Amino acid sequence: AQTVTQSQPEMSVQEAETVTLSCTYDTSENNYYLFWYKQPPSRQMILVIRQEAYKQQNATENRFSVNFQKAAKSFSLKISDSQLGDTAMYFCAFMNQGAQKLVFGQGTRLTINP
Amino acid sequence: GAGVSQSPSNKVTEKGKDVELRCDPISGHTALYWYRQRLGQGLEFLIYFQGNSAPDKSGLPSDRFSAERTGESVSTLTIQRTQQEDSAVYLCASSLGYWNEAFFGQGTRLTVV
User: Fold this and answer.
1) A10: exposed, middle or buried (C-beta count within 10 Å: 0-12, 13-18, 19+)?
2) CA distance A77 to A90
3) B96 near B42, Cβ under 8 Å?
4) Which residues does chain B have with pLDDT short of 70?
5) Cβ–Cβ of B99/A103 closer than 8 Å?
6) How many whole angstroms separate alpha carbon B47 and alpha carbon B30?
């Protein structure tokens, strides 16, 4: 069974700083997809960024980028120039290409301080 | 509709009663997921529907939990004989399948008293 682990329950940084959230996963599959979702206090889950395992190039979306290390089964999220609106729970998620079941980690609570 | 809609948004029920939670996915989305999120916790997978395939029920915690979906439309999650440990936010998501983005509803907050 696939598992996703986020080892940082909480993180806190100052506005405009860069922060990196960690995620590791366990799978025996070769083809899969990885996602980072954001859940602000409104409870609405929002997709931040995604990565296909067969792509070596790390995904980037504006201030958000990932460091995907397939051999190490690591998928960290870097937020540059952090903003107050980035304050939220962040969840790493895994989807097996075949089963298509979306499995989430336990989340990291990120607080951006003014 | 414009997004995934869940109802009710909040539900308070007495221990031992049955509850039904409803999810209206985005039109055309073949995949539908149910998750449970306890306070301050991550998303616990419950069940996954994909088109007309047999659902993946591997996450349902007990036989008190069941879910149905007719075709690619509405899904209902039923919890029978509710227990206090069932108190949580129940989130529904839908997607076009495969690795497409999953869009989430606002969730139903269930409180069992």
Assistant:
1) exposed
2) 9
3) no
4) 1, 98
5) no
6) 14
**What 3 state SS string does B7-33 have?**
ECCEEEECCCCCEEEEEECCCCCCEEE
If you measure CA to CA, which chain B residue comes closest to A47?
Answer: B101
User: A52 and chain B: CB distance < 8 Å anywhere?
Assistant: yes
Distance from CA of A15 to the nearest CA of B (A): 24
* pLDDT, tens digit, 9 for 90 and up, residues A50-65: 999 998 899 999 999 9
Q: What is the 3-state secondary structure (H, E, C) of A38-76?
A: EECCCCCCEEEEEEECCCCCCCEECCEEEEEECCCCEEE
Residue B34 CA to residue B77 CA, distance in Å, equals 8
Looking up tokens 């729970």 gives: A89
